[in-house]
Amino acid sequence: MFHNSSQKKYWIFPSEDEVEHKRSKANQKVRSKIQENVKPGVSDSMLLERHEEDVLFRHYEKRLLDFCNVFKPVMPKSVVGTAIMYFKRFYMNNSIMEYHPRIIMLTCAYLSCKVDEFNVSSTQFVGNLVQESPAGQERVLEQILEFELLLIQQLHFHLVVHNPYRPMEGLLIDIKTRYPTLENPESLRKNADDFLTQAAMTDAGLLFPPSQIALTAILNSASRASLSMESYLNECLGLKGDKESLSKMYDSMRRMKTLLKKYEFPKAELVNVCKQKLERIHAEFGISSNKRKRGYEEDGHVAKEARLAEEEEWTDEDLI
Amino acid sequence: MRASFRPRLFIDRTIRKQSCFVIRCENCVEMLFVRGSGNCVQCDTPLRKNNFRVQLFEDPTVDKEVEIRKKVLKIFNKREFDFSGLREYNDYLELVEDTVYNLTNNLDVENTKLRMEQYQRENRDLIQKNKATLTREQEELEELLLLEQQGNEQRRLDVLQEEQRQLNAKRKNKQALLDELEKSQLPATILLAQHKVRAAQLETQIEHQKQTVKPTNLFSTGIHMRQTVSLLPAPKIEEVLYRYQPLHVETYGPQVPELEQLGRVGYLNHVRAAMPQDTAGGYSSALACHRAVQDAFSGLFPFKRMNS
């Protein structure tokens, strides 16, 4: 359950500032790494600033969401939520400049399918990348498998993510049972769902418990329909005499709503500019690809040429 | 002669061992004595033809250790009873193991043998006494086994005799019928009826005999029936009485109703009902409902100081 989960202990932060602080630290670390070790004397303007990283991060997050939405077979919401949460957590401690988000986002989706027991074979998974040829899909799959262990490690092996979808169901059931004043709780469902989808794109998952997010979603949806649910909070949730907790609760909900309002999807031109910068960084400094090559030699793996030869054989027999 | 190092390559599978602990197959053993004097090829110890043993274990080192251990234990044969405390007994065992190890791996053989002889000299009496007790114990065990076997034999013979008797009785009955048919004046039907009655009586008699329990004077544990045995009561152990404390888990949220209460309060009306296929596996809609409500309430008030 959430109350004794690793999410509560390690991945819920007291304020947005702390989250921002961690991200800046990751950015700073990579910058200094590039400037000291890989290629000294590189101008600062070549490397990504914090806000540019943010732009790209939001862009790729949206791409992840779209990828999951058109996934065949249909991905359950909890799997999507888990994948997005992995993406967020990974890039809290690592920088986009070090690991390209395109691969990490697919690795997050792949890992999330496994953890949430949504059974998809790896070939089926890469089959959803319709723009790639079968050979391209193979290559992508290889990269995914390479980064999978790294992803798990950067998540500190905390793989269970509690999403707000089940708490929302639970709250609706509770409202229907114990709060007959509200006539049709089902009408709240659609708006609450939208709220949750939007909240998944913000940092709400890193700041608030999922049950609180769900409650905010429902209360928001109710206020949209001009229904008052004050008495639900007071009576059913037992907050009647506890003014302090009640005010704290409202405070959290207000913070969450602000977060949602603040979220804006970046414009396409800005995204392209930042993307170009990113591609150049990866091409020139290619920290992660260098790491891979070094890794091969150290492990005494067979040279990469042999593997490519195998790939060529596979393309003909590809079943997709 | 290289082949003697790999006895398993030979068709003749019986493998022989000898006092210098080198493995030879039977062929090689014979060849060795045909060739002249008996000296082991590998370790150059003089061999006698009658000093060969068949190998018992697959791994030659294991076999060697087993042989050495038998010899050592003939000398170091003290028992736990002979020691004043557990520590001394363990030290003694460690000494025994060290001796066996050294002799098996050819480490420090001279010193170890000297130590063994010294021990033997010092504890000669104790060794003799322990040998005697060991033989006595073994004899007792053998006696018990013999008794048991005799008892089994006896029972088997009894059963056979019983069967034999019954067969004889039946045969006599038939013979009697035939005789009577021959000699008597009564009509055949009456004789047949009489015979049938007699046969039935015989059957019931046999049944009765099977059911009578043979009187015995021994309980199954071996204690004689008339013997009075005094049994000590089990020792009493005093401990602190255990008090049950129910488990308390902090959920940082409002209290969730119990699983059994859900139906009564009315939660189950708003959950998808369980189909017959689901209930067959033990699923009930209360389980899903309980989980959803638990998730909804867990962590709702992370700031609230909950009372115990």
UniProtKB/TrEMBL annotation, chain A:
**What are the annotated GO cellular component locations?**
transcription factor TFIIK complex
* Alphabetized GO MF terms: cyclin-dependent protein serine/threonine kinase regulator activity
Say if the entry is tagged with keyword Cell cycle.
yes
Q: Which residues form the Cyclin-like domain?
A: 62-153
The UniProt keywords, alphabetically, are:
Cell cycle, Cyclin
Entry annotated with the keyword Lyase: no
Fetch the SUPFAM superfamilies from UniProt: Cyclin-like (SSF47954)
* UniProt-listed GO biological process terms: DNA-templated transcription; regulation of transcription by RNA polymerase II
Subunit structure and binding partners:
Associates primarily with CDK7 and MAT1 to form the CAK complex. CAK can further associate with the core-TFIIH to form the TFIIH basal transcription factor.
The text of the family note is: Belongs to the cyclin family. Cyclin C subfamily.
What this protein is reported to do is described as: Regulates CDK7, the catalytic subunit of the CDK-activating kinase (CAK) enzymatic complex. CAK activates the cyclin-associated kinases CDK1, CDK2, CDK4 and CDK6 by threonine phosphorylation. CAK complexed to the core-TFIIH basal transcription factor activates RNA polymerase II by serine phosphorylation of the repetitive C-terminal domain (CTD) of its large subunit (POLR2A), allowing its escape from the promoter and elongation of the transcripts. Involved in cell cycle control and in RNA transcription by RNA polymerase II. Its expression and activity are constant throughout the cell cycle.
What is this protein's name? Cyclin-H
